[in-house]
Amino acid sequence: xxxxxxxxxxxxxxxxxxxxxxxxxxxxxxxxxxxxxxxxxxxxxxxxxxxxxxxxxxxxxxxxxxxxxxxxxxxxxxxxxxxxxxxxxxxxxxxxxxxxxxxxxxxxxxxxxxxxxxxxxxxxxxxxxxxxxxxxxxxxxxxxxxxxxxxxxxxxxxxxx
Length: 161
Hints:
alpha+beta, 5-stranded antiparallel beta sheet, two-stranded antiparallel sheet, 18% strand, DUF3576
């Protein structure tokens, strides 16, 4: 219970900071594919150098910055019905706007934090809200489980199993 309250407060503070210094959210939001392509394109544009590789330790292909790429991509896939407002793959923060799931009637928004390169439940924090406040613990747990399951599927697909 304490973790959920702490996570909600942390995500709320993060949303406040992002809202204060971020772009105008009335502008067109980009799709998850467009954002992923931008990040991958930026990595390809930067020249590779030994000093940069040593300083930033980019030897593990399972990392995007310092987050687990499977958790990152699974979060974007599972919550693909939500419009992405802001992403930072280097700090692991994904902020979405309100969206309604297919076949659902309630609008949700989410803030996701992927905090570690490990494919572990402790690396994932999700804050999910409706327009009337936070969702139930069972709903939040179901979304986290769906993200973890999809992340494992993506890892297994990449490893050739």
